[in-house]
Amino acid sequence: MSRSFKQYRLTSLLLIHHVRDNSAHPAIEAAEGLRTRQFSARELVQAFLDRIANVDGTLKTYQTVLSESALNRADAVDQARSRGDEVPPFSGVPIAIKDNMCMRGAPTTCSSKFLENFIPPYDATVVEKLLEAGLIPIGKTNMDEFAMGSSTENSAFVTSANPWNVEMIPGGSSGGSAAAVSARLAPWALGSDTGGSIRQPAALCSVLGMKPTYGRVSRYGLVAFASSLDQIGPMTRTAKDAAALLGIISGLDLRDSTSIDAPVPDYLSELDQGVKGLVLGLPKEYLPEGLDPNMRAMVDDAIKALEPLGVTVREISLPHTPYAIATYYLICTAEASSNLARYDGVVYGHRHNDADSLIEMYMKTRSEGFGQEVKRRIMLGTYVLSAGYYDAYYRRAQRVRNLLKRDFETAFQDVDAVICPATPTPAFKRGEKADDPLQMYLSDVFTAPLNLAGLPGISIPGGFSGDGLPLGLQFIAPALSESLLLRLAHAFQSVTDHHLQAPPC
Ligand code: GLN
């Protein structure tokens, strides 16, 4: 065997290890492989593009694959490295981005016909931060239209499949990002979470998904759904990768007046502080009678895994939980109806060109551009904000929101964090709830309360159902306690191997 052939074989074996097999911390190990010149950024990006070409025809996780720009960026990183330039530690590592984050020159469709041809002239702050860190956006991922949904079935273009069972939905709205990370079509990804859209698909696809504290990550350049709830966060396979990615995207941004002016901790180094002495609260409202027994068993097993690490668990109550879904769907629709007023055919996005009057142009544009679920939300939101109904619905919902916030504040006087399931059930069948919005809305029952309270939460692979479908374990913590959540996730991953299991595809 010639030397160069041997080298080629070695490189491809390493790449297969990184891309397909179980490298424990895919992004961190990929960065290490690049730094030590085991493979080039071009080879790494190409390996992911090849895998996308092979598998994504079935899974449909990507809305757009950015092959050309990704390879160009990879070449630039490789050249910088061979010149001996100092480059940031994650230079050359690919990342997938949910298709509601603006990236200059790349389509940002929000999986909506309205924005089918929209190419933003600027980068979202998170995209800017990824590029500064040397990461390579490899594609924009499929989602529910304008992030409204729990299955990606509301995408105007295509429904993604769950890599663990392609008959099932991957969750939503960041279903494309979750399925891509799960199926090794990207080492990690960004998602956005308004009522559960990072954590629910992460749970259903067996990856880690974190919704940071409201304001921890800038929303500048994130297409707005419900501005008081939306938050961008990492989707990864391990807590270590999540710690690295959260560190890259967090921080104050003067272009988002709601971003928090608090130092960004070194999440990675804080992971090793362990979890000894932590007290976790198990809310009885999150384990109601009749809950899918798989979820209950997953939480019991998780507690058994954590107790030997020095964690104690006690039952708590978050009494207003039963009102959370109603409150969430009043507030998010109200905000959506206002945010989506900008899609009127005048400045950007779809426009109906054959109208006789301005009003007709607005009406036809909006009727053609939005899908059914988005229209439903706009109508509900307009209703709850309208004179005569505002006090009965919107103002009341804001009051209940405060009660939900207070529930958590009271709980955190006694416990350090909350442990609970991320979703009420494992993944459901494609089509099963598509025509039943109320059933679909119930998917958010364990995730939406913390968006209303502005708190951080994380879902991590917690095991599998009897049918081999992933189950998500959730931790919730006080504001700005991301580090604590990552420590819990890391500790759990150090004594379990659910996160190392790969889907069959
Ligand atoms: N499923 C929820 C909804 O449809 C959450 C969406 C989200 O977090 N973006 O509103």
In sequence order, what are the helices and strands, one letter per element? HHHEHEHEHEHEEHHEHEHHHHEHHEEH
Bound molecules: glutamine
* Assembly state of the chains shown: single chain
Principal-axes geometry comes out as globular
Would you identify the regions where 5 or more consecutive residues have pLDDT less than 50?
1-5
**Structural class estimated from helices and strands:** alpha/beta
Strand order of the largest sheet: 1-3-2-4-6-5-10-11-9-7-8
DSSP strand tally: 11
Bin the strand percentage.
5-15%
Overall mean pLDDT: 95
- The radius of gyration computed from the alpha-carbon positions, rounded to a whole number of angstroms, is 22 Å
Question: How many H/I helices?
Answer: 17
Helix share, percent: 40-55%
Biggest sheet overview: 11 strands, mixed
The CA-CA distance between the termini, in Å, is 32 Å
Strand and helix layout:
Blueprint: H1 3-19, H2 26-35, H3 41-59, E1 62-65, H4 67-83, E2 94-98, H5 125-132, E3 136-141, H6 175-182, E4 189-193, H7 199-205, E5 208-211, E6 231-236, H8 239-249, H9 267-270, E7 279-283, H10 293-306, E8 312-316, H11 324-339, H12 358-369, H13 372-385, H14 390-411, E9 417-421, H15 437-441, H16 448-453, E10 457-464, E11 470-476, H17 482-495
Parallel strand pairs: 2-3, 2-4, 7-8, 7-9
Antiparallel strand pairs: 1-3, 4-6, 5-6, 5-10, 9-11, 10-11
Glutamine is lined by residues 147-150, 173, 193-197, 225, 332, 444.
Describe the structure.
Helix content is 40%, strand content 12%. It is built from 17 helices and 11 strands. Strands 1-3-2-4-6-5-10-11-9-7-8 form an 11-stranded mixed sheet, sandwiched between helices. Strand 2 (94-98), helix 5 and strand 3 form a beta-alpha-beta unit. The chain starts with a helix and ends in a 10-residue tail after the last helix. The structure holds glutamine. Residues 147-150, 173, 193-197, 225, 332, 444 line the site of glutamine.
